């Protein structure tokens, strides 16, 4: 028993024993080593004393809906620290250094080696990205931060004229849609009649002409409108607040004249409707009967008139 214990102890002692250090191939002289140490210390102390500095001026960044936002965070003397981007709306931490804490792949931090800037890039910006973001860096004396307000600019479409457009059948419809607050012209402008896109209805007399620019303008023209062209027309452009107008195509004078000439030119007498034919001979007979009873009532003595249906 004692022998076993001794063996175990021996084993443990051998395992714990440190490996004997290999002697350095070339031992530095005392002076060399001291110089190196001093240099290292000076560098470390310097880095320790130089705190990061951050341009804390609040910045406003307007970006068009669907565009790319670049939020800048210029930091000096960051050292080994990292900056964090935070969304102030919900205090959601978006990133730390180059690490992203969001699954939203539209967000990315851009930083090139040696640069002072840590850029939060947001692609395909949406309305919900609107708000203030903050970059932060911790220092020995607290947290430095810079706020960047991202303003999502939403281009707006509007259709010239009133909310309603009245035209007579047979005349042409012309609607003009203007897209404002859109420095980058929209990729497309689509016109809808109720829910249907009609840009390519050339065969049905529909023509769309769009001029892109600082102020994009699109014209919808429909030749010889008919009542079936009535309805809700919407001008919809990429990443733009749409606009709608209600169009009423009335049976105009043209249409009425056409209907009249058609009925007068109709060959042969039209057969009367059955209801009218039945009622026509019946009405005078009923009137005559009523008059007869009234006359009887006046002429006959009251006793006799008592059993007459009029009383
Ligand atoms: C801080 O940033 C603003 C713009 O965000 C700039 O106008 C200003 O010059 C900067 N200040 C310094 C000290 O760099
Ligand atoms: C964005 O937020 C600002 C306030 O921070 C507000 O005034 C503005 O209307 C918002 N814009 C949009 C498109 O939501
Ligand atoms: C017309 O259509 C648009 C888009 O579908 C809709 O937003 C709008 O409310 C409609 N207008 C009317 C008066 O129905």
TrEMBL record:
Annotated TM spans: 282-308
Keywords, sorted A to Z: Membrane, Signal, Transmembrane, Transmembrane helix
CDD domains reported for this sequence: Ig (cd00096)
Source domain of life: Eukaryota
Start and end residues of each Ig-like domain: 52-151, 155-261
Cleaved signal peptide residues: 1-15
InterPro entries: Ig-like_dom (IPR007110), Ig-like_dom_sf (IPR036179), Ig-like_fold (IPR013783), Ig_sub (IPR003599), Ig_sub2 (IPR003598), Ig_V-set (IPR013106), Zig-8 (IPR037448)
Classification via Pfam families: Ig_3 (PF13927), V-set (PF07686)
PANTHER family in the record: DEFECTIVE PROBOSCIS EXTENSION RESPONSE 12, ISOFORM C, DEFECTIVE PROBOSCIS EXTENSION RESPONSE DPR -RELATED
Record protein name field: Ig-like domain-containing protein
UniProt organism field: Plutella xylostella (Diamondback moth)
